[in-house]
Structure of ATP-binding cassette sub-family B member 10, mitochondrial:
Amino acid sequence: MRGPAAWPLWLLVPGRPAARAPGSLPLPVGPGLLGGAGAARRGSSGGPGGPGGGAGLARLLGLWARVPRTCRCGALAGPGAPPLPRSGLPGGPAAAARAGDEAWRRGPAAAPGDDRRLRPAAAGLSEARKLLGLAYPERRRLAAAVGFLAMSSVITMSAPFFLGKIIDVIYTNPTVDYSSDLTRLCLGLSGVFLCGAAANAVRVYLMQTSGQRIVNRLRMSLFSSILRQEVAFFDKTRTGELINRLSADTALLGRSVTENLSDGLRAGAQASVGISMMFFVSPSLATFVLSVVPPMSIIAVIYGRYLRKLTKVTQDSLAQATQLAEERIGNVRTVRAFGKEMTEIEKYASKVDYVMQLARKEAFARAGFFGATGLSGNLIVLSVLYKGGLLMGSAHMTVGELSSFLMYAFWVGVSIGGLSSFYSELMKGLGAGGRLWELLEREPEMPFNEGATLNEKSFQGALEFKNVHFAYPARPGVPVFQDFSLSIPSGSVTALVGPSGSGKSTVISLLLRLYDPGSGTISLDGHDIRQLNPVWLRSKIGTVTQEPILFSCSIAENIAYGADDPSSVTAEQVGRVAEVANADAFIRNFPQGFNTVVGEKGVLLSGGQKQRIAIARALLKNPKILLLDEATSALDAENEYLVQEALDRLMEGRTVLIIAHRLSTIKNANMVAVLDQGKITEYGKHEDLLSKPDGMYRKLMNKQSFISA
Ligand SMILES: Nc1ncnc2c1ncn2[C@@H]1O[C@H](COP(=O)(O)OP(=O)(O)OP(=O)(O)O)[C@@H](O)[C@H]1O
């Protein structure tokens, strides 16, 4: 915040400390003498520009990779891990309750473990109340800050009165020696100003720290709410947009309820005290001055509404620009391979240009608003001088009283400027808040962590699809499965084959319950998986895809990610599974061994190496059910052998569904299922299916090149 001492004396252009309006009048006393001036207009940093301003399964599972990196490693346990902090508060609901966070609490009918019902209690209330609800957990700090604010404001606002007295001491009787009176008054006032400055400093500190805590809590709540959403939500919502909401919008919203609120309160308090003092010093002059306030209020309301709408559009366009940048930077190899750098730069430039256009509109509105308030401020001063001069001439006012009045008028002008800044920042906060509330209050269409679990001892891992009909929510009119039925007995290996796009990866998505079928049932040991707790279900399933997604952390952390509680995994456990997965030799060859950081999405490793790390991760998870997607392209002979051997070890004793691309896998499978046009058209052993002369399987074998290794 700009320090008051840096403000020019003539500053009466409300909310524009840095710009002197042409022709504005110099005032006798500057705010620098009067302690902190919280009415300083906030910078517009939160506005445009922001604060500181054919591998289907891989694609599906890649959704998980959209999770921001910082949360992927270690901190975020896999399925089966303790649920994410409810209510977004680091300590979960208990902490929320401790913090008195009424905006985030369980609904009255919530069952234990029912995360879905956690929703902001403020839902349905006006947005302004929701904003204030955010500040509620910080009420003690904020109340203390308001106390210090009141103290510094009282001191600030008493200054003009005493300064007027000093002027009268000087002017009233120039022949008398008034030096001792003057020294006493000035020393006393210096002490009082010092107290005012200290109170103001404490207020700023408390407000800033509360603001950051509110933003942190808001970000945690939002991140938690985003991660709970069903996968279909991520099919429709773009990552960059969510990132923008998490960073820019939360900051804007947080600021509007703390620093801005504090400055608004200060300005409000100072304006009302200033107006009262103006009436106290000269009622007739005060009545005259305040006749200009109502027209200004009307302009402010119109301006505020406009700004609110504009902020919403600006934040949306900013989110789109972030989305584009995030996607292109994340896929820079593809951009480079196609030589599209310049095209992408132009695309980004057009998005940023649009944000700029909106910023220009905002600047235009701001300029008009602050120009009008500045002009009226200066006119007030001029008229006070005029009318005050006349009153002094008729001996109705002393020079000290006129000086006091002018200073109060000045403070009221500054405070009204502060109030208009507060109002515009609040409107911006409300504009940015709209989308945030939508996200925060969105209830996932699929339960996140509720439902039954099966008895671990009797759990077999038999899977069955019965008359399943399914279309992706993003394409409801295009059915992927129509009357799809398939049984995968416990402990058996079923190979799934079918033409590209026939829905093989979709089978895996449905088993992981990333989506629910439109009709029909998918059961585990005879229980409809919709009745089961999805987190528990996923903890029983391991997946290895042809393009495994690794996170940008160490190899050890990537392997430990498979465990229910990654933090409890020992180096020995990691070493052991890496050995079984034929991965430890190449890992140990890296200078930093298991501590080697693999780069974003594991970009620093080869395909075969990534697969073996994924196999080690699955081994550590030790699931009853395995869903595998074999690599379509052949690895070199050695890698091929090592991966295959690791996979064979991984498959032992589990229920396995494998999207097969290797002849050897198909031949070794207990059963082969042929998927075509949303149905299983053939089912049996490799040799039996091959013996059907017109069968789909035979045609597939002839058409598609299965890897012969
Ligand atoms: N998230 C999604 N939203 C909408 N449609 C999708 C989605 N994922 C896949 N599809 C569509 O569903 C159909 C089945 O896709 P799926 O990935 O299951 O096929 P596949 O048999 O695994 O293909 P491939 O062998 O090429 O990987 C395709 O038509 C595909 O375009």
Remarks:
- Residues 54-56, 235, 472, 474-475, 480, 498, 500-506 surround adenosine-5'-triphosphate (CB under 6 Å).
